[in-house]
Amino acid sequence: MQTFREYLIEASEFENLKKNKVPLSDEERKECLKSKAIWHHGKNGEATPAVWKSVDKNNKSTYITNTHRAWNKASSLTGAIKRYHDFIKGTA
User: Fold this and answer.
1) 32: Cβ–Cβ under 8 A, 6 or more apart, which residues?
2) 74 neighbors 82 (Cβ within 8 angstroms)
C-alpha cells in the first residue's frame, strides 16, 4: 500500500510531466494506432493515441499512458505501449 507521502510525490511527478507535454510526432502517433494503444473518445469515436509525451528541460522524453484511475511512464514509446496493454487499459 502506498503512503500519503508517496502519493504526493507521485502526484507531483505527474503534474510536472503534464506541464512539459508535447505532441507526438506523426511517426509516434502512427505507431500507437498500429499497435492499438488507442482510446475512442475523439470526434465521432475516432481512435486517438493512448500515449502522450513529455519532454523535460534537458530534452529527455518520457512517454505516459493514463486513465483517471492510474498512470504509468516509460522512457520509450514501445515501453509505454506495453504498459498500456498490460495494465492501463484494464483500469478504464
Assistant:
1) 24, 38, 49, 50, 51, 77, 81
2) yes
- Per DSSP, the three-state class of 50 is coil
User: Contact at 8 Å (CB) between 31 and 77?
Assistant: yes
Q: Name every residue whose Cβ is closer than 8 Å to that of residue 17 and which is 6 or more positions away in sequence.
A: 54, 62, 64, 73
- Three-state DSSP class for 39? strand
Question: Roughly how many angstroms between the first and final C-alpha of the chain, as a whole number?
Answer: 21
Q: Would you mind telling me the total number of residues written for the chain in this entry?
A: 92
What stretch of H or E contains 16? helix 4-19
Q: What is the pLDDT of residues 26-83, one digit of tens each?
A: 999 999 999 999 998 767 888 899 999 999 999 999 999 999 989 999 999 999 999 9
